[in-house]
Design goal:
The model has no long low-confidence stretch (mean pLDDT about 90). The chain is built from 10 helices and 5 strands. The radius of gyration is 26 Å and the shape is elongated. The longest helix is centred in the middle third of the chain and has 40 residues. Helix 5 runs antiparallel to helix 6 and helix 5 crosses helix 8. With about 350 residues, the protein is mainly alpha-helical.
Length: about 350
């Protein structure tokens, strides 16, 4: 995503003097710095990406040779450039995987099949990562645009969604990386170990990509792939970052819902009468522009938005460095990076000599 492809990309992210005073210079400077860093990260990635997923092709005939002939005839209808492998399931059922993108590189059939089984995982992992990046960028930019115009409620909604996505990205990438490193420690795997890894790793990746809760509230029953509860991800994420992130999140939720936090957004001043008989408040749709005779109340929701924006972008970019390494390591180790017709290219510079390895080895 480069200049022109993002509707917010050209927004200067300048805060008026009133808003800058209400947020404080530290928050304003922090927001502008993080937005610049996130934009640079987006610019280092391609504007377009693709992923592919191998689907099981059921083989109807119980005779392996006949089933193979039927599969080949089916694939030839779409051209000659197909790589495929057949497998057996319980009760004698057979299925196949096939790809017109994978290109075998080895003289050994088993080595090609093992590489082929991991080929689509590399593609899906890269697609999952760049989708998270685009999501984070869109939500962060939307948060800033709303905040610079002091539309605090839409800013809170965007910041809340941003935080939930960052939590999922950090926690689930850490879980998938752990599975990958455990697999690597086994050394060069045989075909059976590769199949086992594919099944276990795909469980997590597919859940992260396609898990959903659609239909639950409508009474249509759970989806085939149920998404992890976002509060579970936030609890795990909160233990990995500094700061009271859950309190900030509660403020954002209270603002997004028709609750106390939502109503405070439009309160400029409030106080109790000196005799204790009444509580009164001055309301304004744009409290940043409202003229008051007494100091304004603290913009707690706006502060939570700014703090979540800064913390969320920091956490995302830190994890993005590790996930980029993860994807490259997966592609290079499995050979998937060399076995495709289409190899995505990043625009990012190489690591500096003083940088630690993202895998955590030092």
């Amino acid at each position: 995503m480069r200049t022109g492809s993002n509707p917010y990309r050209g927004h200067p992210m300048k805060f008026s003097q009133n808003i800058a005073e209400m947020l404080g210079s530290s928050r304003v400077n922090g927001i502008q710095e993080r937005i610049g860093a996130l934009r640079a990260c987006v610019d280092s990635e391609p504007e377009h990406a693709s992923w592919v997923k191998h689907l099981q092709i059921p083989l109807i005939d119980s005779d392996p040779e006949v089933a193979l002939e039927q599969l080949v005839a089916r694939l030839r209808k779409s051209g000659p450039d197909w790589f495929f492998a057949t497998f057996s399931q319980d009760k004698g059922k057979r299925f196949a995987y096939a790809s017109d993108l994978y290109r075998p590189r080895h003289s050994s059939v088993s080595a090609n099949v093992a590489e082929f089984l991991l080929f689509d995982i590399h593609s899906s992992l890269a697609g999952w990562c760049i989708s998270h990046l685009w999501r984070a960028a869109d939500l962060a930019e939307a948060t800033c645009v709303s905040l610079t115009d002091w539309r605090v409620l839409p800013a809170a909604a965007s910041a809340r969604a941003l935080l939930e996505g960052v939590a999922a990205f950090v926690v689930e990438s850490e879980q998938m990386l752990a599975k990958w490193l455990d697999f690597k420690r086994l050394g060069e795997p045989d075909l059976e170990a590769t199949i086992v890894f594919r099944e276990k790793f795909n469980e997590k990746l597919l859940q992260a990509q396609f898990g959903s809760r659609l239909g639950e509230r409508a009474g249509n029953g759970p989806t085939h792939l149920k998404r992890t509860n976002v509060l579970t991800l936030l609890d795990k994420f909160s233990k990995r970052v500094d700061g009271d992130i859950l309190t900030h999140y509660e403020w954002l939720c209270d603002a997004v819902h028709p609750s106390f936090g939502s109503n405070t957004v439009y309160v400029a001043t409030q106080g109790v009468h000196e005799i204790g008989a009444t509580l009164a408040a001055d309301l304004a749709r744009r409290t940043d522009r409202a003229s008051t005779r007494i100091p304004k109340i603290n913009p707690d929701v706006a502060w939570a938005v700014a703090d979540v924006l800064i913390l969320g972008i920091d956490a995302f970019l830190n994890e993005m460095t590790r996930v980029r390494w993860f994807i490259d390591d997966f592609g290079l180790t499995t050979g998937a990076s060399f076995s495709s017709r289409h190899i995505p290219q990043r625009n990012s510079p190489g690591p500096r000599k003083t940088e630690n390895c993202p895998c955590g080895s030092g």
